[in-house]
Fold this protein.
Amino acid sequence: MSSTKGKARERQLARAKYERQLARRAASARRRRQWIAGIVVVLLILAAIGLAWWLGAFDSDEPETQPDTEVTVPADEPAEDPAEESDAGDPATDDEGSGDESADEESTDEPTDGEADTEGDA
């Protein structure tokens, strides 16, 4: 009977060893899942921040360069610009101003498609 008790004891020890291994593997798998879940959460947060940045959520309503230029331009220039006074007497400058106006008038006086359409209708 001692051999039966020895075999029973051997099976009991083997079963205990197997249960410890299962517990160790389960704990290892649980830690691995927690690490993976943590990494996934961090990646999702970074992706959400990146998407928000790409869509412009972090842009200010008013660009920083515009207020600086609007504030400094009037402060730097005097009320009367001396360059305008010197250009006023220059005939070359006056011709350029009238040339722009005539170019605008020429483009508006000559309807390209309008006359062709009216001739075909008449």
In short: The chain has two domains: 1-61, 68-108. Residues 1-61 form one domain.
